[in-house]
Structure formats: C-alpha cells, structure tokens
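PT: before anyone asks, these are the final sequences, not the draft ones from last week. 1371 residues across everything. Please model them as a single complex and drop the result in this thread when it's through.
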Amino acid sequence: MLTLLIAIPLVAAVAILLGACAKKTALAAVAANLVLTLVLLVQNYGAPGYQATASTPLIPALGLSYSVGVDGLSLLMLLLTAIVGFAAVWVAPHPEKLERYPGLYYACLLFIIAGATGAFASLDLFFFYAFHELALIPTFLLIGIWGSGDRITAAWKVTIYLALGSFVLLIGLLALYFSIPEAARTFSIPALQTLAAAGSIPQTPWIYLTILLGFGVLISLFPFHTWAPQAYASAPAPAAMLHAGVLKKFGLYGLLRVGLPLMPQAAQHWTNLLLILLVGNILYVGLATIAQKRLDSMLGYSSVMHMGYIFLGIAAFNPIGLTGAALLIFAHGLSIAILFAITGFVRDRTGSLEFTKLGGLAKPMPFLGFTFGLAAFASVGLPGFANFPAEMSVFFGTFAHAGDGLAFSNFQVAGIAALWGLVISAVYMLRGYRAAFLGETGKRWVGLADLSFCARPAIIFLLAATMIAGFRPQLLVNLVKPTVKGILQNQTSLSAK
Amino acid sequence: MVTLNDYLLVSGLLFSLGFAGVLLRRNILVIFMGLEMMLNAANLSLVAFSRFGVANGLPDYNGQMLVFFVITVAAAEVAVGLAIIVALYRAKQTTHVEDLTSLKF
Amino acid sequence: MSPTLFWIFAAITLGFGAATLINRNPVASALSLAVSFLGLAALFTSLSATFIGIVQVLVYAGAVMVLFLFIIMLLDLKAEQRRQVRLSALIGGVVIAGLFASQVVLVLRHFPKGNHEFPPLSLPHPDAVNIGLTLFGHYNLPFQVIGVLILVASIGVVVLSKRELN
Amino acid sequence: MPWIILFAPLISAAVIVLFTQKWKNLSALISIAAVLVSLAASITLFLNAPDSAATATIPWLDFTGFGVPFKAPISFTIDGLSKAMMIVVTFIGALIHIYSWAYMADDEGKSRYFAGLSLFMFSMLGIVFANNFLMMFIFWELVGVSSFILIGHWYFRNAPAAAANKAFICNRLGDFGFLLGILLVWVATKSLDFEGIKQAIDSGNAPFLAVPAFATATVVLLFCGTIGKSAQFPLHVWLPDAMEGPTPVSALIHAATMVAAGVYMLARIFFIVKISPDAMQVIAVIGTITAFGAALIATQQNDIKKVLAYSTLSQLGYMVMAVGVAASSAAMFHLFTHAFFKALLFLGAGSVIFACHHEQDIWKMGGLVRKQPITFICFLAGTLALMGIPLFSGFYSKDSILVAAYEHHRILAYFGLFTALLTAYYMTRLFVIVFFGKAHTEAASHAHEAPVVMWGPLVLLAIPSVIAGYASIAGHFLPVPEHHGESIVPSLAIGAGVIGILLGALLYFGKAKDPIRIPLLANKFYFDELYAHIIWYTQDLLARICAFIDRWILDTAIVRGLSSGTWATGFVMRFAQAGNLQGYALLFGAGVVALFYFILFIK
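LR: through. Structure below.
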C-alpha cells in the first residue's frame, strides 16, 4: 500500500519523461495518491503503533532494509503531501504554456511528491534520509530552469544550503548510530525507538545538537533561514507550494519522529537554545517581514517566521505543545500553499510583485483577492482555519510550563514573544494584502482577468481542507494522539530511570 | 673505509642536483636530463642497499631487479619523452618551458 | 674498492652532474651527463653490481645519450639565449634543492646503522648468473610486461614523431 | 434552540459565499431571513428557557485524553446576561439588515455585504453565548474579521482599506493582552470555562490569583481585550476611522453591538475582575479618560458620523468606568439602552446622509427638519436619550453609572458629569446644524424623506430608545441597579445636560460656519500623528533594521561571505596554476621538503 503510494508518482514521472501526456498523467497520479491516502487514513485512524508496514531487507550486513509504515503523525504528513501535491499539480501551468521542457517540469513535481511521501512513510533511517535528498534535486531544477528573477543564484543557494544542512544532519544521525552499542545498531526507526525507551541510546547532548541544527537548516531555523525567502521568491508557484508546504516540514517531522523520541533527555539540554532561536524566528524574522517590499519575499519570510511557532510547540515538549506543533505543520502547509499558488497567478498576470506597483487587484480579480484574503487570515491565525487551534495549542502548551513561583518560566517568556508575533504577522499580512489587493486599482491592472474556472477548484480544495481542520481540529488531535503519547512515554520512562 | 652512508650521501646529492636542474633550467631537454639524474640517484641508493643487505653471502637481488626495471622503463620514457619534445618543437618552435604554458586556467 | 677511488668516482659523478646544470649549451650538458653516468656506472661496479654497471653504461651512457644528442642536433638547438632570469624562481629552486640536500645530510647523520662497512660477499657464480636466475625466475612476469611496455613505447614514439601528411 | 440562533446566520453567510454571489437581492433576502429566524428563536428562548439551561456541546479542542486539563468545547451559557445581550443583538441586527436592504440597494458588493453582516451576527452571538474563554476568543477574533470585511466593504477606495487594516491591527494589539490574560487565568486555575474558573477561585484552588500582583496583571491583561474591542484609550483610534464603512455597519457593529462586546466580556468575567481592586482602578481611570477625551474631541468634529463615533467612544468609556467602579450591572444597563439609541442615531444619520447624496459634512447640510420629519423626530429621541434627559432611556442608565461612580470615587463622577455636559453640548451642535437653519448646499435643499424600509427601523428603534430605561421594562431583561436613597447626582446630571444644550444652542443656532476653532480637539489630540510617529520610530525602524541585518549581514556577509570566501580562495589558488612547469615543480618540491620535515624532524 505505502510502496504503491511512493511508486505511483515515480512511475508517472518516468512515464512523462518517456512521453506520456504530462498534465493528465500527473493529475491522475496525484489523484490516485490522494484517494489512497484517504483510504489509508480511514483504515488506520487512531490506531496505535505503526500500521500498513512492509519490509524488505536490502543489505543485512549493515542492517539496512527498505521498510515503510505509518502512524498518526506520518498519516498527517502523508495527507498534507497528498493534498498539497494534488493542488500543486493542478495549478501547474499547462504544458503548452511552458517554454522549456514541459515533461521534465511535471516529472520534477512528481519526484518531489514521491520523495516527500517516501520520507514520511519510511521506517528506516537510511531511506528516511535518502527520500528527502531525492526531493531536493527536482527542487533545484524547478527553481533553476523555470524560476523567476535571479533564479540561478537562488537555485544554487537553496541547494547548497540544504545540502549542507542535510550533511550536518547526516553527521548527527551517523553519530547517533555509532553511539549505540555495536550489537544493537540498527537503522530501523521502530527498533531505535524501542532501544530509546529501554535507555540503550546514550543521551549525548552534542549529537542531538547536530541533529537539531541539521534539521534546523532544512526548516529555516533562525539564523539559518536566509535561503528560504530568496528560494520561494524565485521558485515557480507549484515548486514553492510543495517546498514550503510539504518538503520543508520534513525537518519538523524528523524532529518529531527521530530527534525527540530517540533523544528526549539530550533534547532537554538544548531547550533554552532552541527557545532563543525560535524567538529569533518569530520576532526578528517577523520584523524583517514587515520591511519587505515584494509580495513573494514577504510570503517567504512569513513562512520562515511561522516555523518559530512550530518550534515553540516542539520545545514545549508536552502533549498540548507537541500536538499543536503537529497540527501547525499541517495547517501552515496548507495556508502557505494557497498563498504561494495565488502569488504565482498574480505574477503570471502582472509580471511584478512589488508593492509599490501593485494595488487594488481585488477589483479586477475578485476570486484571487477573496481567496488570498482568506488564506492571509488563515496564516495570521484566525479562527475557522486550521492554524488557529494549532497556534492556540502551542501557546497553551508553552504556558503549561509554569515558572518558579510567580516568575515567568523561559517557556512563558518565549510564549509572550510569540504572542507578540501574532500582532506582527497581522501587521505584515494586512499591509501586504492591502498593498496588493485593496485600495484604488492602478490603471495598468484594470483589465486583468480573474482566475479561470478550471484552476479554481485547486484553491477551493486547499481552503476547504484548512477550514475542515479548523472547524474540527479534534479529528487531527485524535490522529496524532498515539504518536505524541509515544514520544512522551519515552521521555517519562527515561527520566524515571 | 667506504660506508653505506657515503653512497647514500652521493645518491642524495646527485638527486638534489637533478632536482635543482629541473627547477632552474629552462630548456626542456636539460630538465629532462635532470630527471634522468634523479632516477639514477635513486638507482644508486637502491644498489647500495642491495649490497648492504647481504644474506648467505649474496646481495639482495630484489633491489638490483628494481634498478633493472627502472633503467628499462626510464629508457622507454626517454624515448617517448623525446618524441613528445620533438612534436612540441614542431608545434611551437621552442624548447623553452616558459613558452609552453598552455596548461593553465 | 679503495676509498680514494670511490671519492674520485663520486666526484666525477657529482662534478659532471653539476656541469650538466651549469652549461648553457645543451650539447655540452648532454656530454657532461654522459660522463656523470659513466662515473655512476663505476660506483655500481664498486658495489659488486657489475651487471647493473654495464647496463648503465650501455643504456644510459650509450643509448640514451645518443638519443639526446640526436634530438638536440635534429632540433638544431643553439645555446640558450640570455633571458631575464626570474630571481624568485632562481632563489626558490636553489633554496628548495639546498634544503632537500641538507635534509638528506641530516638524515644520514642520524643513521648510525649506515656507518658500518659492507658485509663480505661470497659469490658462487658471476653476478650475471644470479641476476639472470632471479629475473627469469621470480620476476618473469614483470619482465614480460616490461617487454610489452617497450613495444608500446616504441610504437608510441613512431606515432608521435611521424610528420603530419598535408 | 441556541443552535438555531447561532448557526442560522453562519449558514446564510456560507450559502451566500458559495452559491448566491451572483444574485444580489436573493443574497440579501437569505441574510435577512436568517437574522429573522435568529430573532424569533431568541425571543422563544428568552420567553421559555430557564437560566443556565444545560445544552449539548460540540467538542472543539480537547486534550483531556492526554491527561491535561485543557478542554474548549463550543457550548452555551444561557443566563440573564446572555439572554439580554442576545435579544439586543438579534433585534438591532434584524432592523439593520432590513434597513440595509434599502441603504445598500445600488451597491455592487451587496452579496458580500450581506454575507459579512451574517458572519458578524454569527460571531457576535458566539461571544454572547460563550461559556469558556477559548470559545469567547474564537468569536472575539471572528467579529474582528467581519468588522474588517465590513469596514473595508468599499475596498477599492484607499481610506476604507486603510481603516479596515487599522481596526484589525488595533484589535490584534488588544487581543495580544487578552490572550495572554486567558493563558494566565488558565495557568492559575487550570480551567477555561467560566464555571470552572469561578469554582476554582471560590474554593481557593487558584493560589496564583490570590497574589495581588498576579491578579492585577491578569485582570489588566484581560482588560486589554476590552481596550482593543471597545476602543478604549489608548487604542481608541480605530473606531472613528471605522466610520469609513457603510453607515448601517457603523450602527450595528461600531455603535450598538461589537464595540460593546468588550464591556459584555468584562461583565461576564466580573467575578475575576473583582479579585483585583488595583486593576479595577485602572479600568475606571481608562474608562473616564476615554469618556472625557472622546467627548472633548466630539465637540469639534464636522463629519456627522465622526461625531457619533466619538460619542460612542465616550459612552463606552462610561460603561468601562462603571465596571471599574464595581457597577457591572450599571454598565450592562447602559450598554442595553445605548445599543438602541446609538443604533437609532446612526441609522438616522444614515438616512440624512442618504438623503444628501452621501454627504457627511454637517456644514453642508442644514434645514432638514422640514424635508425629513420622521427622521427628525426619531433623531431627536435618540439625541435626547444620549444627552441623558429625563424620561429618555439614557438618563436612567447614565445616572446609575454616575451614582455608582460618585459613591466610589468623586473625581471620576465629576469627570463623568462634565462629560455629560459636553455630550449635551456637542449633540445640540450637531442637531442644530443639521436640522435647523438654511440648507447650505444644493444636495441638502433637495433632500427628501427616506423610503419606508429605512424609516421603519428608525421608528422601531425610537420606541426602545425612549422606554428601555424604565425599570419596569428593562427589569424584564436584566437587573436594573436601584438607587439607594437620595442622591445629588441626578439633579447635577440634569443640570449639566441643560447647560450643555443651552450652550450649544446659543453658539450654533443659525450659524453657517463654526464659530469656535480648537485645532487640538479638531485634530483628535493628534493621536493619529503621534501613533504614526511611534510606529515609524519603533516598529518600522526595527523592521528596517532587521531586514537590513538579514539582507546585508546574515545573508550577504555571512552566508554569501562563506560562499564567496570559497570562491575567492579558488580564485587566488588559480594564480598558482600559471602553466609554469617549474612553478609546479617548485611547489611540489617544497611540499616534499615540508613533508620530510614534519615526518622526520618533528618529534
């Protein structure tokens, strides 16, 4: 089942490269993926432990095997991948409109989807890592070939930066692997988790730090975030959607899947550092977002800023905080995908995204204006959208760490900074929205066409997904509950020892 | 009394001379000669060690074998090298190394 | 061999080696090199390696030197014109070579084992017999390979020096 | 029943957005039908349901499965407070929906407008019914959104778009404190629903809240929510700007209901507020400053809606002051009466504006008394109620606040009385200029009475504006504070009102230009300019610094620096590759020498 999920986009990508009709094949593949994911979700909803597992030993000498399986958290991530992947392929420009290599364009999108799916479904550390790397190459191609602006620089920058991050991560993972007693070494994530629960994994702080920073670069943790705005500003819309919405979340997923469960105590060691960095994400990057002068770079910065909230939930390391982090991963993936999709459409129509040149676009393009407004509201965390319950959970999780007596704990101080971040995000989102869509319509933009009817369902679909999650967040809470409990059990059983 | 160290000293100095030739002379033919000197210097120390490592009254022939092979290969190398120099001279009308700088960035 | 003879031959070897470097005329260089190699052959012989010594004379002082002279004459090389000598290169070369030589001297000074006299030999056969036995016995395969190498080299030389037909 | 009240408007909003955007009148009808359903259901509920009726709840976010005391369902509080508020909201809401039918008849975005109104009704009723903090916060944010949508209804003009942003961001600032307060309450009591918090406080299970400093901080932070939503000083600046929205919206949201939500919230959580006397002191002072300052500003405004907006601020200040002097029932009483007469005044103003072809400057109106007799009478009733003239509703509610303030703190009461004088003064000014004298412009001279759909709601609102203050009537809806014995306050208030009216009439009767010019007041104490400077010198400056650091130091100097460092090293190394054979050999030799040196001579 899961292998099928990974194989469908891969096969479709190869078929497209061999000459199959690009758009139809890609759409069929992502639609099949969506259906499969929903089936998986319904079948395994709320079940504890790993479901739908499959395993084939590859190199027994190294303990290496291809093994897949899902629990609540990975189901959530697969759902996100399927939804955003579907929408991204849907909004991708028609092959005939692409100047260069239309087949490769779609194949790259499918490779990213396959890579993300594989990374989220893998239960083997090696494949977990390798699938993510697989997805980086098509990102490079998409930005480098079909990007806008200074695309070559952006493509190299993001690729080298992320490759460096992955490299640091690899060092961390290998160090973790070799720190385990030789007889017990394995790449299997469930086996590692059992080891961790039994206390057989040494809780070495610097190894966790390496893993944290490695993942941190992938997630654009302050101050390793400068790749993100430029890359997202240059990337074509579907690539930005997939990367910001899904692929970037690999790092967070990795922290929740590998980092925290395996090294809960080492993680505690760096909580204060993480809190400082994430406040940097929220306040510093948030302020930098206010000063942006282009819609795309503003969105790029805002996606960096919101990572701070997810980190806050992870740092809180309690049921509410971790669940909130998981929910926020999902919610942010959807909202940023909508924003990037719309930004892509606007760029296609106006050719410019500078605030001083835009203005009043909602008049000629009511649909885009309206949906952008909704997505902007979602992204600043208003009720009705998935971001709101997620951010609330993060805040409550943070404040659950009571300080010493009446004094605020470090968590609460970071939480207050993050609350101020809500004001900041409202400021830049509304300023951006007003500068681009509201106000008097510039003469150049009067005759612009609104989004065509055949492209609308993708946006509506994403909005519907985020609103469903916003109205019934409990569905998602229950989905990730077993995973979160598992992570916390490791911690409690270890601290008991 | 002549000791091993005396031979090695001669060998080392000859090697240094050859190396100095490679570094200092501009004529590619003379540089080539310097290379030959270095090879021969190495040969000398090999033979000296072979003579020094006596077992059962016999010198260590492995060392002499190596010298033999070095001489053979060096001869082949000289032949090929000189042929290349001839070809170079035909192309560039010079045997001066500072004129042969096409292998740069 | 008496120390006197050894030092005479060593002086010939090194002296003519130095002359190779110093001479501006390539022909003179080549001839100096030949003499240097002859001295070297004498040193080989002094180490009871008569076969190698003879090979040295035949191959180097003979064949290789002829080849060098032949090429020099073929290319019709004049004495090197005085060019602007790059002082930095000159100093660098001298310093590096000098450093190397001094390193050799220093190493030898700390190599007491080498200060012993050579042990006596008792050769039942002439030198060439033993060499032949070793060469065709233990080193047969490398010997054949060397043959192939020389074949390849000679073909290569022919190809390289063939004039392009217009 | 509460489900119907709450969700009928939501369904209407959803249907309009999803299906009937094209058919404007159908959208309007759906929205009006929804609000009427809500009104009917509210009346039924009001008449039938006992207080605190247990209702079904929807679990919204629930972490009790993790063993954590965090539970935020969507469920209802049905008590006197919420029922009175529910009636006010649905009644005024229904009238304003109907009024909008005519007022917005020619508007292109009618569907959007009615969807926004429906969304607002849903959100406002959510606040009214909320039985826990998180639910209240959800709807609290949602009214902010709908207010944004409705203020920015004419988004294609610059001023409404800017006003919408300003309103939303000011509200967000308040919400920053509000949410922080909620978090602190949760930390202290481990509970989110009001019942649970009350129990925790009563049973002494909230040790933190027993510490005065903590309690003060918590209450003041919660009060921040009110400052934002009810536009109290110093976040009052958004409300006058919000008048850029359509007039019915100003009436419904920015006069009668939403801005009162802050006061309603304070009344709802009064059991927390009263823990900290210090915080109440803060609340009372803020309320007084707002009431007095806004009244001062109102005396010099020329835009009819701005005058009313500042009077709203002033009245909200009264209510907040009332909460601050521990008279939350008086606050609710004033909220109740104010909702009617202020909605009436705004709708009346809307009628006038409509008649004068969307002219809002009072100096371009005049002499409307004969052209719009019905509007005139209704407006008069609203004005007298606002001035606090006996027999009109405002008198009773304002009196109860002033009496409470007088008992609590005399200085506050004196400020309150002076504010009453100013209120009478500026309302007389407005009234005299608009309705009497000569018509100052063409448009005003051709004005005529509004259609029945518009004056009908005026009449319907005029009635409660008069009678809502009588204890015999208001007592059915909410507890009316009783006057304890004789007090000097009512007579003082009447005196202040009369002086104000006389002053206003003397100064302005028959004038075509403003005889008094006080730039400080006309420019609203320069608050907007001050804030613009503050924002420019703090947030925007910081933002530019951060962006600069990010762009030039983090990105260019460090990240690019590393990459260019690599590149530059390569560039420098390239010069070694000069194609000079002997150069290579020299380096090689140097390497060998160095290697020997390190291997052999370093011990």
